[in-house]
From TrEMBL:
<keyword id="KW-0119">Carbohydrate metabolism</keyword>
<dbReference type="GO" id="GO:0008422">
    <property type="term" value="F:beta-glucosidase activity"/>
</dbReference>
<comment type="similarity">
    <text>Belongs to the glycosyl hydrolase 1 family.</text>
</comment>
<protein>
    <recommendedName>
        <fullName>Beta-glucosidase</fullName>
        <ecNumber>3.2.1.21</ecNumber>
    </recommendedName>
</protein>
<keyword id="KW-0326">Glycosidase</keyword>
<dbReference type="InterPro" id="IPR017736">
    <property type="entry name" value="Glyco_hydro_1_beta-glucosidase"/>
</dbReference>
<dbReference type="InterPro" id="IPR001360">
    <property type="entry name" value="Glyco_hydro_1"/>
</dbReference>
<feature type="active site" description="Nucleophile">
    <location>
        <position position="377"/>
    </location>
</feature>
<keyword id="KW-0136">Cellulose degradation</keyword>
<dbReference type="InterPro" id="IPR017853">
    <property type="entry name" value="GH"/>
</dbReference>
<dbReference type="InterPro" id="IPR033132">
    <property type="entry name" value="GH_1_N_CS"/>
</dbReference>
<dbReference type="InterPro" id="IPR018120">
    <property type="entry name" value="Glyco_hydro_1_AS"/>
</dbReference>
<keyword id="KW-0624">Polysaccharide degradation</keyword>
<keyword id="KW-0378">Hydrolase</keyword>
<dbReference type="Pfam" id="PF00232">
    <property type="entry name" value="Glyco_hydro_1"/>
</dbReference>
Length: 477
C-alpha cells in the first residue's frame, strides 16, 4: 500500500490507497432492539440494564434504534454514505438462546437478511461474534470466569459460520475482551456487574481461550479465503513523569491493559511480570497446559479500537484520578492513579489525543511486523442536536475524526500496515451504562420517532470515502 502526501500552497492532501477499507461499526445490543422477538432470550445486558441503579435513568436496549425492523433503511444510509464495509455483531441469545444446543433458525434468518442486504448494496460485512451480550443462562452457570463458557463460545461460533460463512468474508471473534473481563467482573460498571479481582483475571484467560477455540472452529467451517481476527482496545499507556515510581505504574497497567492479551495471542505465554504482580490475587492455576497453544492460533488481521490515551502515575492523594479510571478494573493496582490528561475532552469526559493512536500503531508495527491492522472503532460522543431544518452540526466530531485519520496516515507512512478504518458509530445508540445520554453516531437518532438524520460528520466522511483523500490544514504561522 502507498500513502501519499500531496502538498499545496496552504494545505496538504493525504491520499489513502484505493483498496483501503472504509467503514462504520455498531453492536447488536446497542442498536437492534426487539429484545423479546424471534425467540431471543435475555443476555447479561438485558438483566443488567433492568436492574435499578445500573444504567443512567433506567434505560435499556429493549428498543434501542430498532435496527431489527429498520435494517434495510440503515443499509440504504450506509450505501448513501458510500461505506465499503460494515462491522456489526451477532446477538448470541438471538441465535442460541441458552448458549447451548442447536441454533435458532429465526435468529439466524435476521442476519441472513442483513448480510444479503449489505451484499446487494456492495458493502462488505465484517461480522463480530461477541460484543458483550452473553446469554444470561451461561452467566447463571458461571459466566466468563467459568472455563466451560469458552467451549460454549466455540460451538456458537461454528453455528454462525455454517449459516453465514458463504457470504461473510471477514470474522472477528471477540470485541474488547478487556472490557468484558475487567469492567464486567472487576469494577462491575458493565454487565454482569460483578466485583471480584480473581474472577476478572480468570475471565480474561477464558476470553482468550474462547477466541482461540472459536478460531479453530471457524477455520474448520469457513472457506480458506475467510479472514479471522480479534478486536482489542489496547491502551496507549504513558507514565505521567519519568520518575521510577511512575514508570513502574505504567509497566503494571500495560501488563493488565495490553500484554495480558497480546502475549498469549501472539507469543503463547502470559508475561512473567503480570503473573508476579497478581500472584497475591490468584495462582493462575486456571491456565491449563494446552490452553496457550489454542489461544495462539493464527489470525489474518488485528482489530484496534482507540478513543483516548491513558496516563498513569504512582498513587498521589493530591492528584485524584478521573472517573474514567474505573476503580476495581485494575487488579493489584490499588496504589496506581490515572492523572487527568490536559486538553480537549469529549462528552464522555475522555481526553482527545490522536497522538496516542499513532503511538499505539507504531508499537504494533514493531512488535507484530507481519500482521495487518484495521482500526475497528474510533470516534467520539458530543452534545448533538437536530435543528428544526433537519440538520445536525457536529464540528467537534469532524475535528476529532480528522485528527485521528491524520494519525493513521502518519503511522502508515511510518511503516504501520493499516488496511482499514471504521468509525464508531454508524448510529446514535444505547451507550451501555450511560443509556441514551451519549451520542457517538454519524447518524442522529430521534429515539422517540426512530427518525434517522445524517449529521455533518456523515457527509464529511462520505466525501473522504469517495475521494480517498483527507485535506489536512497546515500551520501558516
Amino acid at each position: 500500500m502507498t500513502y501519499q502526501v500531496l502538498t499545496g500552497a496552504t494545505s496538504a492532501t493525504l491520499r489513502f490507497p484505493a483498496d483501503f477499507l472504509w467503514g462504520a461499526a455498531t453492536a447488536a445490543y446497542q442498536i437492534e432492539g426487539a429484545a423479546t422477538e424471534g425467540g431471543r432470550t435475555p443476555s447479561i445486558w438485558d438483566t443488567f440494564s433492568r436492574t435499578p441503579g445500573r444504567v443512567r435513568t433506567g434505560d435499556t436496549g429493549d428498543i434501542a434504534t430498532d435496527h431489527y425492523h429498520h435494517f434495510r433503511e440503515d443499509v440504504a444510509l450506509m450505501a448513501d454514505l458510500g461505506l465499503k464495509a460494515y462491522r456489526f455483531s451477532v446477538s448470541w441469545p438471538r441465535v442460541q438462546p441458552t448458549g447451548r444446543g442447536p441454533a435458532l433458525e429465526r435468529g439466524l434468518d435476521f442476519y441472513r437478511r442483513l448480510v444479503d442486504e449489505l451484499l446487494t448494496a456492495g458493502i462488505t460485512p465484517l461480522l463480530t461474534l461477541y460484543h458483550w451480550d452473553l446469554p444470561q443462562e451461561l452467566e447463571d452457570a458461571g459466566g466468563w470466569p467459568a472455563r466451560d463458557t469458552a467451549s460454549r463460545f466455540a460451538d456458537y461460533a461454528a453455528l454462525v459460520a455454517r449459516a453465514l460463512g458463504d457470504r461473510v468474508p471477514m470474522w472477528t471473534t471477540l470485541n474488547e475482551p478487556w472490557c468484558s473481563a475487567f469492567l464486567g467482573y472487576g469494577s462491575g460498571v458493565h454487565a454482569p456487574g460483578r466485583t471480584n479481582a480473581a474472577d476478572a483475571l480468570r475471565a480474561a484467560h477464558h476470553l482468550n481461550l474462547a477466541h482461540g477455540r472459536a478460531t479453530i472452529a471457524l477455520r474448520a467451517v469457513l472457506p480458506s479465503t475467510a479472514q479471522l481476527s480479534i478486536t482489542l482496545n489496547l491502551a496507549a499507556v504513558s507514565a505521567h513523569t519519568t520518575s521510577p515510581e511512575d514508570l513502574e505504574a505504567a509497566r503494571r497497567i500495560d501488563g493488565l491493559a495490553n500484554r495480558i492479551f497480546l502475549n498469549p495471542l501472539f507469543h503463547r505465554q502470559y508475561p512473567d511480570d503480570l503473573l508476579k504482580d497478581t500472584a497475591h490475587i490468584t495462582d493462575w492455576s486456571f491456565v491449563h497446559e494446552p490452553d496457550l497453544a489454542d489461544i495462539g492460533q493464527r489470525v489474518d488481521f488485528l482489530g484496534i479500537n482507540y478513543y483516548s490515551p491513558t496516563a498513569v502515575a504512582a498513587a498521589d492523594s493530591s492528584r485524584p484520578s478521573p472517573d474514567t479510571a474505573q476503580p476495581g478494573a485494575w487488579p493489584g493496582c490499588d496504589n496506581i492513579s490515572f492523572p487527568p490528561v490536559p486538553g480537549q475532552r469529549t462528552a464522555m469526559d475522555w481526553p482527545v489525543d490522536s497522538g496516542g493512536l499513532h503511538q499505539l500503531l507504531l508499537r504494533l508495527r514493531d512488535e507484530l511486523p507481519a500482521l495487518p491492522l484495521i482500526i475497528t472503532e474510533n470516534g467520539a460522543a458530543y452534545e448533538d442536536h437536530c435543528e428544526p431544518n433537519g440538520t445536525v452540526h457536529d464540528p467537534e466530531r469532524i475535528a476529532y475524526l480528522q485528527a485521528h485519520l491524520e494519525a493513521v496516515h502518519r503511522a502508515c507512512a511510518d511503516g504501520a500496515d493499516v488496511r482499514g478504518y471504521f468509525v464508531w458509530s454508524l448510529l446514535d445508540n444505547f451507550e451501555w451504562a450511560h443509556g441514551y445520554s451519549k451520542r457517538f453516531g454519524l447518524v442522529h437518532i430521534d429515539f422517540a420517532s426512530q427518525r434517522r438524520t445524517p449529521k455533518d460528520s456523515a457527509r464529511w466522511y462520505a466525501n473522504i470515502i469517495h475521494t480517498g483523500t483527507l485535506a489536512r490544514r497546515r500551520c501558516t504561522g
